[in-house]
Amino acid sequence: MSEELNDRKNGFLELVKRIRYHNDAIAVLHWDLGTGAPRKGVPQRAEVIGMLSAEAFKLSTSDEMGNYLSYFNEPDNSSRLDPIMKAAVRECRKEYDKYKKIPEEMYKGYVILTSEAESVWEDAKKNNDFELFKPYLEKIVDYNVQFIELWGYKENKYNTLLDLYEPGMTVEKLDAIFTELRSRIVPLAAKIKEAAYQPEDQFLKQYFDRLKQEEFNLYILGRMGYDFDAGRLDESEHPFTTGINPGDVRITTHYYPNNFISSVMSSLHEGGHALYEQNICADLNGTLLCEGASMGLHESQSRFWENIIGRSRSFWQKYYSELQKVFPEQLKDVSQDDFYKAINKVKPSLIRIEADEVTYNLHIMIRYEIEKALINGEIKVADLPEAWKEKMKEYLGIVPPDDSKGVLQDVHWAGGSFGYFPSYTLGNIYSAQLYNTARKEIKDFDSLVLNGELFKIKEWLAEKIHKHGKLLKPSEILMQVTGEEINPEYMIDYLENKYKEIYKL
Ligand code: ZN
User: Fold this and answer.
1) For residues 267 and 231, what is the distance between their CA atoms, to the nearest angstrom?
2) Distance (Å, rounded) from C-alpha 231 to C-alpha 228?
3) C-alpha of residue 13 to centroid of ligand 1, in Å
4) What share of the chain in percent tops pLDDT 90?
5) Which of 49, 64, 95, 458 is spaced 20 to 30 A from 20 at the CA atom?
6) What are phi and psi for residue 310, nearest 5 degrees?
């Protein structure tokens, strides 16, 4: 390697590290805000985060970065880079282009608009007042359409937004996926609703001591291979994962005294996200490759642990007796079978975050169809409340009584996150597809769960997915592991088989 190339490479990596370290600091500050920072310190904290973010932004879009990127873009130089350097340059170029193509004033205007919109949205949701939020949402959609014009797009404007969260995903692929889901999941949900047998889940609403809940959560996280020397569990209003670096990946859960299963499922979910970040290969640390390949793939890991493992019969065959030991009074008359059915109860709900495995993707389908139409100018913001109600009726058979429980329920649009929602369904689909492969490749998958040897499953996921970080695209990882492109059949089959048995259909 020439001396110049080597110098440039070192200089570039040093610059990327500076960006990365700013982000590390920001992540810790955010984590602290979410886990009990004193109220009086919040305003200044927000300023500190804003200032550090601006610094990181300046570094990512600096002339220094621009010079490195054009140097590495020269065919002579790029051909001499190793795969990690090539990918590290690719990710920085993405960031650089994304911001450089937007005029500075326009970007500032958007940042101010979305931060205002989030607090307006909170009021609008609280007071069931869509009209209050409407002008903000109109402007946010407008900005996004302008960004797409500046960034450019292929085939469909919405593709550019999808690509931000799921590189390579397109409307064409998603339309096919959702068509398949609509034709099989809508009827399945309807049949379950009409079924004569409905699981009894009242016992889950008894009082469960907070400390005992925590004890069980810690136990389960340890069993699944979450490394407590590289993380910690705290409580927050909404559960989240903060990946600072592979040696520091923190998770939170929320303890409800009368709904203990919520904290267990959240810990499994966030624990799944955390295993991903804890097991990224050390070579990628300090670059922008040290994160998940996409939002969808990240979500596949959380859903794998929460649903495929955590809501399975074999998991509770192993751990239900442990749970009974922690809560002997509450669970003494509840059989393992009744418990399994209760935590898998399907009930169409108005609220996405309360949805079960079967109806969850229908909530996402509604958001996907609305976002795609908005960005392509086929529907106006003013029409959203009605469109929402119609789709709820068609897919879930229920209609929200007001906009707070309808179109105003999620924060995503107020923050400008268009194109994000499909990640949740992609995560579900990936998780079932990976599960199918895991069962073929890991000998006695079921008995590993039955024997509590969950760490062996974690090792498989780490080797096949986690270690690559963002080095490969999500579609490349999926192809490498499962030998196929994304295929929704595995998830639909999984849901049909599981729920036909539970509901005796
Ligand atoms: Zn998640």
Assistant:
1) 13
2) 5
3) 30
4) 92
5) 458
6) -70, -20
* Tens-digit pLDDT profile for residues 240-282: 999 999 999 999 999 999 999 999 999 999 999 999 999 999 9
Q: How far is the CA of 67 from the centre of ligand 1 (A)?
A: 37
Per-residue pLDDT at 411: 92
Calculate the alpha carbon distances from 358 to 162, 189, 297, 409 in Å: 24, 7, 20, 20
| Cβ(240)–Cβ(270) below 8 Å | yes
Q: Are strands 248-253 and 233-235 parallel, antiparallel or unpaired?
A: parallel
C-alpha of residue 273 to centroid of ligand 1, in Å: 7
Residues 6+ apart with CB under 8 A from 403: 128, 129, 130, 385, 388
Note the pLDDT tens digit of each residue in 452-474: 999 999 999 999 999 999 999 99
Q: Evaluate the CA torsion angle 43, 47, 53, 57 in order and state its sign.
A: positive
Residues of the chain with pLDDT under 50: none
Measured CA to CA, the distance from residue 325 to residue 44 in angstroms comes to 46
Dihedral, CA of residue 422, residue 427, residue 433 and residue 438, to nearest 10: 170
Ligand 1 midpoint to CA 290 (Å): 18
The rounded Å distance from CA 427 to ligand 1 centre is: 9
Q: How far apart are the first and last CA of the chain?
A: 66
Q: Tell me the CA–centroid distance for residue 119 and ligand 1, in Å.
A: 23
Q: DSSP characters for 277-342?
A: HHTS-GGGTTSTTSS-S-HHHHHHHHHIIIIIITTSHHHHHHHHHHHHHHSHHHHTT--HHHHHHH
Query: Residue 281 C-alpha to ligand 1 middle, in angstroms?
Result: 21
Q: Which residues pair with 237 in a beta bridge?
A: none
Identify the CA nearest to 224 among candidates 168, 265, 169: 265
Task: Please say whether the beta carbons of 133 and 119 come within 8 A.
Answer: no
Q: How far apart are the C-alpha atoms of 60 and 83, rounded to whole Å? A: 21
Q: What per-residue confidence (pLDDT) applies to 96? A: 96
Amino acid at 164: L
Report helix, strand or coil for 482. helix
The catalytic site residues sit at 270
For residue 450, what are the CA distances in angstroms to 190, 263, 312, 313, 463?
32, 22, 10, 9, 22
Residue tagged 């379950």 (tokens): 192
- Burial of 137 from C-beta contacts in 10 A (0-12 / 13-18 / 19+): buried
Block residue for tokens 């209003």: 237
Burial annotation 229-265 (CB, 10 A radius, 16+ → b, else e): ebbebbbbeebbbbbbbbebbbbbbebeeeebbbbbb
